[in-house]
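Chapter review: from sequence to fold.
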Amino acid sequence: QVPSTTEISTGYQINPATVLKGMNLLVSEQVLEKRRGLGTFVAEGARKIILSKKQNEFANQMVPNFLKEAQALGITKEELVKIIEGGFLK
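The token string follows.
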């Protein structure tokens, strides 16, 4: 179960409307689910949904910028592969 909108807004000194908007967004993305009379809970599979969204964001936003910067610096594909492999081995 997640804390109530009031608990979150008080604890973090955030406008309650902002908290409600964020929680409703998470409900619409099926990360949270509201149970009438019980409260709001983390949905089953929420971690998978969030991870998938972050992976897509990485592939569609960060990787193209990374590749563009590497090209601007004159880094070859082979050099880039070595850099990446080196980073995974650390």
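Two observations follow directly from the output. The mean pLDDT is 94. The chain has two domains: 5-42, 46-89.
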